[in-house]
Amino acid sequence: MPLFKRYEVLLPVRYNDGTPIEEEKFRQTWLEARQQFGGLTIDLHPLRGIWVHEEIVYEDELIRLVLDVEDTPENRNWFLRWKETLKEQFRQLEIWMVAIPIEVL
Asked: What is the pTM for the complete model shown?
């Protein structure tokens, strides 16, 4: 059985100025992930993130995307490129994305 990684992506529900992010941006993001990997999990229960950048405290409401994919260099590179795209689309300084080795039973 191939090795897998779980990629978790936290997306803000508001721009940094407090304006809600348009629903269409989320739908487009979900579509991109589904087309690339065939499926994903979307956790719509809002998470709260608090972080500091250049002495400014940011408080975010976030939704979590979870994608379990084969652990290949091609998939990792896709996520690295996608992260930069998401930072632009959601007008963010950073998008939190992690990769965790998993065992699929």
From this structure: 0.90
